[in-house]
Design goal:
The chain is α/β, with parallel strands linked by helices. The protein has three domains: 72 residues, no CATH class; 178 residues, Glycogen Phosphorylase B (Rossmann fold, 3-Layer(aba) Sandwich); 159 residues, Glycogen Phosphorylase B (Rossmann fold, 3-Layer(aba) Sandwich). The chain starts with 6 loop residues before the first strand and ends in a 5-residue tail after the last helix.
Length: 434
């Protein structure tokens, strides 16, 4: 809510034909007697009802402040917004691609959102929404980017792990432009695992000054609360991949009654070397021998430079050809569909584990779990579903009996999934609150 001492409304113009009311409002401090605020709105309310209210405000000061505060809320709910979305978009990372899909669906349904501008590396996204426009970062000059910022009302970094080392000059510069032009800069559903405790340094400023800092996990939230100390709204919510779980409904596995672990997916990382390829192939061999399992090498990151299949191709050297298959995908739904057909999943990519849980596929996460900054461990702990069994360190032997235990005892964490979806929705709704 604006901290308004005194409001003077002027130049009320009502266009009954178009149903558009335009007005200019200025905020004047009673003590300083000078104007320090300017706002211009264009809304489409009930003209007949609002016309009388505006006239009473203009000519009668009794109860003026109370009504204007109410009226500001009304405007925030009805005024049109242009939103600029930024993130690790267009790189064929399944998690970030799901964020784009979730955010497009969410903002398209919002009547007060007029346009959704998205900056991405490559545009392979599919949408029928007339509100959405994509801009390739490689073709966006500094002047064009500035014009895009000026055209937007709210700039949003949506989802993912913010790996900011040193001083984030570009983001700070963009945030300064946003502040000077009276717009908003928000972070939605982000993780701060890449920022070491006690080493936030100059990068802290970009989070401190954000209008909204919505964190996806408790460790990131505590880091923000204790060290970054945001001056505006900050909150804890679910990962953006959970925003609308109906998206996954066609792919959710039915209760698994099979005793055979026939199809196993594995998602490694592109930069892993031959030593890890040989090691993890050996961990999978007992499953192949006992169940004649097929190992599906499923990249959670595609593209050219960071394609996880670079590592998976190394694994092929150590697995029987008849028991392994390497996959690729063009859109995130393809990844989800392939994973939904699995009996078990191993993953070093956070969102491969998240999607497996949403679908009800038993899984194991591979990460440096002794670190507080392990985003996979933070996530698995939060699910409260066989947390001690489902987490393995890098190059830690994976006992087949433990895999069988998870396969037999794992249950889709429905209550957790619904809560993540609920809190993700609540976090993003802060955009429309003051």
């Amino acid at each position: 809510m604006l901290s308004i001492k005194y409001i003077y409304v002027e130049k009320i113009r009502i266009e009954k034909k178009s149903g558009c009311i335009r007005y200019k409002a200025t905020q004047r401090s009673v003590l300083e007697k000078n104007y320090d605020f300017f706002a211009f709105f264009s809304i489409f309310p009930d003209v007949a009802q609002l016309e009388g209210q505006l006239k009473r405000i203009k000519y009668k000061e009794t109860g003026f402040l109370t009504f204007f505060n109410f009226f500001i809320i009304y405007l925030q709910q009805r005024a049109f917004m242009n939103i600029l979305l930024m993130g690790y978009y267009g790189y064929r990372n399944v998690g970030d691609d799901l964020f784009v899909k979730q955010l497009i669906n969410y903002f398209t349904e919002k009547k007060q959102v007029k346009n959704i501008f998205i900056i991405c590396e490559e545009n392979y996204y599919q949408t029928d929404s007339h509100k959405v426009s994509f801009f390739l970062s490689s073709k966006l000059s500094k002047i064009k980017k500035l014009l895009l910022i000026l055209k937007s009302d709210c700039l949003i970094w949506g989802g993912g792990t913010l790996n900011i080392n040193g001083k984030p000059d570009n983001l700070l510069r963009m945030q300064n432009i946003v502040k000077m032009t009276g717009k908003r800069f928000c972070f939605l559903g982000v993780g701060l695992e890449a920022i070491e405790s006690g080493q936030a340094g100059t990068s802290a400023k970009i989070f401190q000054n954000a209008n909204l800092l919505y964190l996806r996990d408790n460790n990131s939230y505590e880091l923000a609360r204790q060290e970054l100390k945001p001056v505006n709204t900050y909150c804890l919510g679910g990962d953006l991949a959970f925003l609308d779980v109906n998206l996954y409904e066609p792919f959710v596995k039915k209760e698994n009654k099979s005793k055979q672990i026939k199809n196993i997916s594995f998602s490694g990382k592109f930069w892993w070397g031959d030593g890890r390829a040989e090691f993890y192939a050996k961990q999978l061999m007992p499953l192949i021998k006992e169940f004649n399992s097929v190992i599906h090498l499923l990249p959670a990151h595609g593209g050219e430079e960071r394609n996880d299949n670079k590592f998976h191709k190394l694994m092929l050297q150590y697995l029987p050809k008849e028991n392994c298959q390497i996959h690729s995908w063009n859109k995130p739904e393809d990844f989800v569909e392939i994973l939904s057909q699995m009996d078990f999943h191993f993953g070093n990519r956070l969102h491969s584990i998240i999607i497996a849980d949403i679908l009800g596929v038993p899984n194991i996460g591979i990460d440096n779990y002794v670190s507080k900054n392990s985003k996979i461990k933070n996530y698995i702990d939060k699910t409260n579903m066989l947390s001690l069994n489902r987490m393995f360190d890098f190059m830690e032997p994976i006992d087949i009996d433990n895999i069988k235990k998870i396969f037999q005892e794992y249950q889709r964490p429905i209550e957790f999934i619904l809560n993540e979806s609920k809190t993700a929705f609540e976090g993003i709704e802060f955009l429309f609150k003051k």
